[in-house]
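Protein Record: Sequence and Backbone Structure Tokens
======================================================

Structure line: whole-number tokens from a learned vocabulary of local backbone shapes, matched to residues.

Purpose: to set a sequence beside its fold so the mapping can be learned.

___
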Amino acid sequence: MNPRIHIGFVGLLLAALPVAVAAQVKPPALDPGIQSLAAEFFAWRAATQPCTPDDIPRIERPHGWLPDFSPEGLARRKEEYAAFRSRLNALPRTGWSRGDSVDWLLLRSAVERVHWELGILRLPERNPDFYLQQTLGSVFELLVLSSPMTDAKMDEIVSRIRAIPVTLSHARANLSEPILPFAAMAIDNLRDIRGKLERLAEELKRVSSAKHHAAVGRAVPAAAEALEEFSRWLQSRLPGMKPAFSPGREACQFFLKNVALIPMTAEEMVSLGRLELDRATACEAMEKQRNAETPELPFFRSLEEQVRHCWYLNGEAVFISGYHTVTGGRKQGYRLWSQITHRGGVAARVVTVDVETKGGQLIGRARLKT
């Protein structure tokens, strides 16, 4: 073959290659049926999902949202779950792309979590602490948002505080088989609840406009009284509560397969856990043996213990500050400032600053750019 023709032919192939590759990797269109059902389900879930102390499943609620765990609301929610599940299983899955199949599995996981909460664990009927999350937890969801404390945000906070007595009245109607350890946890979480809410009211008044002060002043005492009454109600029923609860193997298998999407049996998970425990125990034993002759690190003796900064240039100490008591708080943070000015002809500078306590404990180390 003529070299020029050969080179030109190869160049022509290379020029066409990106077009061919681009055509091959173009993602297929997503199935509109599952996408529509998913959008509808997650909008429903945003309005009905229980509050939780875990930040991972925490979601943004619709404007004006309030928890509804009335007996009628719970019954309606279970019916709506069954309808979503039926519609999901009825979707025709022929001709789906891999992405559609993955979306179906993920949507099924989200749908079946509703059954896990309401049908298997039966949290509204068994767990008194569940209702602290739907009352105090619903307020906390708004407090942890980093957005400014606007009038609209304060309206939402006050509205949720006002809803606390109503939600707790529903709790007493729903808790048909409360479990003793869950009730004891709720009672413990309600210790000094009035004092905590009064401090909350003071802080809310401090950061909000004056027009909300009266509403906060009315809502907080009513919420505190309802929570104290709920604690007394639980304490009076402790002797008749079930001492323990376990969902059982079949329910755990349902969770692993349908919610967690883990292709393992409960026994395989236990076996894996034992292997990991053995590994961790062996590593701990080896580490203890390796450090057998090493003296124990001194502990931070108190929150008021003084600290100092030790500055190093290329490993050589160049400045050690005096000891200082670290001050601050949640708003300002906890900071200790020190600085040095070093003039020298060192070409490659590695500056390190150690933070040490007066007891000799290294509690921080930073490497600085020069």
User: Anything to note?
Assistant: Confidence is low (pLDDT under 50) at residues 1-17. The chain is about 55% helix and 10% strand. The radius of gyration is 30 Å. The first helix runs from residue 3 to 25.
